[in-house]
Amino acid sequence: MVVHVLEEMRIRALGVIDDAVVELSPGFTAVTGETGAGKTMVVTSLGLLLGGRADAALVRIGAKAAVVEGRLTVDARSAAAVRAEEAGAELDDGVLLISRTLSAEGRSRAHLGGRSVPVGLLGELADDLVAVHGQTDQQGLLRPARQRQALDRYAGAAVAGPLEKYAGAYRRLRAVSAELEELTTRARERAQEADLLRFGLEEVAATEPRPGEDEELAAEAERLGHAEALASAAAVAHAALAGNPEDPEGVDAATLVAGAHRAVEAVRSHDQALAGLADRIGEVGILLSDVAGDLAGYADNLDADPIRLAAVEERRAALTQLTRKYGETIADVLAWGEQGAARLAELDGDDDRIGELTAEHDALRAELGELAQSLTDARTEAAGRFAEAVTAELASLAMPHARVTFAIRQTETETEADGIEVGGRPVVFGPHGADEVELLLAPHPGAPPRPIAKGASGGELSRVMLAVEVVFAGSDPVPTYLFDEVDAGVGGKAAVEVGRRLAKLARSAQVVVVTHLPQVAAFADRHLVVEKTNDGSVTRSGVKAMEGEDRVRELSRMLAGQEDSELARAHAEELLEAARAGR
Element (H or E) spanning 532, and its range? Predict the structure, then answer.
């Protein structure tokens, strides 16, 4: 039962479309029109709504921006609806509005349920809502990588579980291999680095610098180098402050200040201001006495020791050797020593680390071999069921004798280190396992199975792709399928069978098909025609729903290029009747 339906798209200023509304419905909708009328823009528009790549060249010439709006009915319990609501989108009675705006300058904006959202979110929803298939997808199916993806998708959890474990082990192996290669290929450089660090650390340890020692020694050297001048200056200053015993006639500062203090002290009681000044003079006298005492002590303690000065300079030279190599100051040298010791410990531990990594590397390779074998087994089992189901579908698509198979193989490697062991053989492996998956087609009895890229015509490839999608619909369905000329290269009876199969698919999903074949369009529940006006644009009224006589006329045009041909009309009516009877 369809729980999501794309009800309507409005397209403005996109390609040849000026302004058009595409009204869709559950079941099978066919979109037709003359070449260049803009049918493919329907596919392009839906691709934009679902987060597809935006190209400014799509904006109609003369327009500032192209806008595509879509209205979907969704099941409120579905993953898509929950994800949309988490992003802030609002659902109105189960209706979700999506819009995408593309400016002529290339800027792109997306809105979901009235809320601006990243374009990538639309792509996330697309996985649960719509499967879009165009001619480029058919070409993609030719690539073995896409074929492997298709098989894995069909296998479901049987492959997804082992593949997730394999991918995790594979990423870890890559990281271990990179680190191991760096350690082994740079062994010489790392050994040289360790020797230099060891020499430097030994040199620092032999000198035994202390924090701040360089600053202390610089101050001491300055003092010792000028000891005589300092002592003389201290003596002169002391004599000026406290007097010189050898010169009783001399005048000193302490005596003068004492005389001043006595003079004001005698009359201080007569004026508070003068009393304050007397106190201050007394304080000056005390300060002068203290300074004079300190000067005397400084002069007595000053040691003009040339031996000590030589020792200080020698120590400073040793410290300078360190600061020249390992830092501007002794603090920097000590910091370098701590960092160097840590780095040396790391380098000295490389041998142990290499041993650990080598053991882990071998264990991961063994684990990958087991996981790769599990993947191969799961893919082989799923491939048989998948191929059988696709073969059965091809029988319903006018290819009754065709047979589809999968070739699953591994490429052996002569260098065991380049591979993993699967089934007792060293084989090449990658992020998705060791399997090379290829879809083979034998179109008729006696024909050898060949890769579909080489063994299938354009029409056969279209039908193989449709068969694959129908099989997916039974195992991993999506609500809406959009096919862009999936019937390319198909004609006659095969075209009728394609139409019949699309109608069958539409019983459980919404199917929209852009087609040029009347045999396919005849099976549609709803038939839309894209028409251009005389100026070459498609307007709102340019997408019309064909019913009754109008539909017969359109099928006649598709059959014979002549809408009023009686023969073509008769054939069109016959097609419609056959389609109604054959559903």
Answer: none
Q: How far apart are CA 281 and CA 114, in angstroms?
A: 87
- C-alpha Rg value of the chain to the nearest Å: 46
Residue 119's pLDDT band, with cuts at 50, 70 and 90, is: confident
The sign of the torsion formed by the CA atoms of 33, 499, 1, 134 equals negative
d(CA 528, CA 24): 9
Tally of CB atoms within 10 A around 351: 11
Tokens representing 406 are 């999968």
Query: Average pLDDT for residues 328-339, to the nearest whole number?
Result: 92
At residue 140's C-alpha, the angle toward residues 138 and 145, to 5°, is 140
Cβ density class 233-272: b for 16+ within 10 Å, e for less: ebeebbbbbbbeeeeeeeebbbeebbebbeebeeeeeeee
Give the amino acid at 399. Answer: M
Residue bearing tokens 């000065």:
309
Residue 116 sits at φ, ψ, to 5 deg, of -70, 130
Q: Pick from 62, 84, 63: which is nearest to 73 by CA? A: 84
| Per-residue tokens: 468 | 């694959």
Burial class (CB in 10 A: 0-12, 13-18, 19+), 141: buried
User: pLDDT digits over 353-370, tens only?
Assistant: 788 888 999 999 999 999
The tens digit of pLDDT for each residue in 42-57 reads: 778 888 888 888 888 8
Whether 50 contacts 84, CB under 8 Å: no
Tokens for 376, please give them: 């191969």
Percent helix, strand, coil in the chain, to 5, is 60, 15, 25
Q: How far apart are CA 581 and CA 583, in angstroms?
A: 6
The span from the CA of 178 to the CA of 188, in Å, is: 17
Please report the pLDDT score of residue 535 as a whole number: 64
Query: 435 by DSSP, 3-state: which?
Result: coil
Contact 464, 141 (CB under 8 A): yes
pTM (predicted TM-score) = 0.59
What percentage of the chain reaches a pLDDT higher than 90?
22
Task: Compute the distance between CA of residue 77 and CA of residue 139 in angstroms, rounded to an integer.
Answer: 36
Taking residues 173-196, what's their average pLDDT? 84
